[in-house]
Amino acid sequence: MEILEEVKAFEHLSNRSSKNTHCIANFREVVFYDKLMKAWQFKYSYWTANRTLVFTKGWKKFVNSKNPRKGDSIKFYLCKNPAKPAEDFLMIKTQARSIKLLGKTILS
Predict the structure, then answer these.
(1) Which contiguous run of DSSP H or E holds residue 106?
(2) Is the distance from CB of 31 to CB of 39 less than 8 angstroms?
(3) Residue 36, CA distances (Å) to 18, 32, 92 in order
(4) Is 11 in a helix, a strand, or coil?
(5) How far apart are the C-alpha atoms of 103 and 106, rounded to whole Å?
(6) Neighbours of 54 (CB within 10 A)
(7) Which candidate, 4, 6, 30, 34, places its Cα nearest to that of 94?
(8) What is the b/e burial string over 59-88, where b = at least 16 CB atoms within 10 angstroms of the residue's CB?
(9) What are phi and psi of 101, to 5 degrees?
(10) Which of 16, 44, 66, 102 could cross-link 20 (Cys pair, CB 3.0–4.6 Å)?
């Protein structure tokens, strides 16, 4: 389970078209695509008490597949097509941290 503290994330996800998200009980499901256009389906819920968005189902599978290390980041994008808004989609990207030693990148 991963907690996102940004209310803006919920606003973006809750405004997605039915193509990318749908409601199941108190949870919603959303589909993100990685750089290889593989679909990743996550179930999430918004906790109003502490204003957090929580990914549950599907998140562990994504993390196990991408194997991020401590310090890496996972970024979420909304890809828009101004000519065809119905074709907008969500992307997810893992980004390895970069470590410099004496001005040279030794890990990226």
Answers:
(1) strand 104-107
(2) yes
(3) 23, 11, 10
(4) helix
(5) 9
(6) 16
(7) 34
(8) beebeeeeeeeeeeeeeeeeeeeeeeeeee
(9) -130, 120
(10) 16
Rg of the chain taking only CA atoms, in angstroms: 16
Determine the distance from the C-alpha atom of residue 15 to the mean position of all C-alpha atoms in its chain, rounded to a whole number: 15
Q: pLDDT tens for residues 46-57? A: 777 777 778 889
Q: Give the CA distances from residue 70 to residues 6, 15, 25, in Å, rounded to whole numbers and listed in that order.
A: 20, 31, 33
Our CA angle for 24, 50, 15, nearest 5°, is 45
Two tokens at 41?
């389906």
CA distance 32 to 44: 12
Amino acid at site 48? T
Q: How far apart are CA 48 and CA 70, in angstroms?
A: 28
Contact 17, 32 (CB under 8 A): no
What does the pLDDT read at residue 69?
85
